[in-house]
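re: ur question from yesterday

yeah so i grabbed the chain u mentioned. its 90 aa long if i counted rite. heres the sequnce exactly as i have it in my notes:
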Amino acid sequence: MIQSRKDCFGILNNVFPMGNEGLREIVPECFKCADRKGCLQTALKTEQGFELRSEVLDRSSSGGLLGSLKRWSDKKALSKRQKGQKGAKE
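ran it thru and got these structure tokens back, copy pasting raw so excuse formatting
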């Protein structure tokens, strides 16, 4: 039996919208959903998800030279994954 997914599956602004205080929040209905983990993971693999993760890295504190290098490395890895996703779709 094939299980169908909800229309909101993997859409970042539906499952992880911006809250009133400018922070993203998980929708309370999502906590009851059996697909919540896969849904959020799929949403983070979209173009908007990559942008969100990049913004989070930009806002994080540097923590000195090592922190800056780690953040740079993380952003580079994220960029490579994003380009890999685009290449796989084409």
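noticed a couple things. The chain has two domains: 1-44, 47-90. also The mean pLDDT is 84.
anyway ttyl
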